[in-house]
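B., you asked whether I could sanity-check this one before it goes into the benchmark set. Here's the sequence:
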Amino acid sequence: MTFDPVLTLAAVGIGIVVGLTGMGGGALMTPVLVLFFGVPPLTAVSSDLVAAAVMKPVGSFVHLRRGTVNLALVKWLCVGSVPMAFCGVLIMRSFGSGPQIQQAVQIALGVTLLLAAAGLIVRAYLRLLEHAHQVDGSAEPLPQGRPAVSVRILPTIAVGAAGGLVVGMTSVGSGSLIIIALMVLYPSLKASELVGTDLLQAVPLVASAALGHMLFGSFQLGLTFSIVLGSIPGVWIGAQLSARAPGGLVRRALAFVLLASSLRLLGVTNAATVVILGATLCLGPILWIVVRRRHGLPALARKELLDDHSLR
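And here's what the prediction gave me:
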């Protein structure tokens, strides 16, 4: 077993992002391993999943104690995700481990990161819509206590199966793609319940994928040890900062990093990457201001907070 202190430091930084936002673990660590540490894509996916299997239970147990988990949703999500996560590993393994499959995994990872970045934008837009409806009074009155949720069994299983397959093949999706689907399927779920339910269902999902990679993948104990050693304190630090840092700003930065990583994994040239990222930095805030104004909100969230305080 070899210990890489630089990788451990990188894992601390990624753990802080995960603690701040509740997402981004596999979506950041796996491309970091591939792009900056030269780890083969299959090995990066395998080692990151095994590390995630060690860390996922921590956050989920916190939400269980707080009662912010919908156990019925967890059950039906796992019916689809657990077997498909293991199948995802077998599908990847059936193609071998040569240069072609490594390239295929890298492309699949790049596409998944693009979807994860898009998912963050969709999540922010859905939250903006919810806030706009509350401001203009068109939102339904908040129910007393926990909102009742009628479980849609087949769609929930399908979400779990799709998410499990993606996680098993790329290590990305347990904390980003699935939670977006849950927001669409169950809009009445509180934000804390969305996060808690997603975290708990990710425990058996990631464990299944990790087991598959330990048996059939390219798992390396040294890599996993270095990741876990940095991620655990990083997540704790991020959780402490989460009450102070603006979550929206952190998630926008995360989406930008995911976009940059996906472009590099997909083989986009340096010049094109700079143009795309520059356009995103310049046009993204302008488009977001336009969207806020269209829904009757101030151009800047800070302005909205100042207005609220001035009325008190």
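One thing to flag: Residues 5-135+147-268 form one domain. Otherwise nothing jumped out at me.
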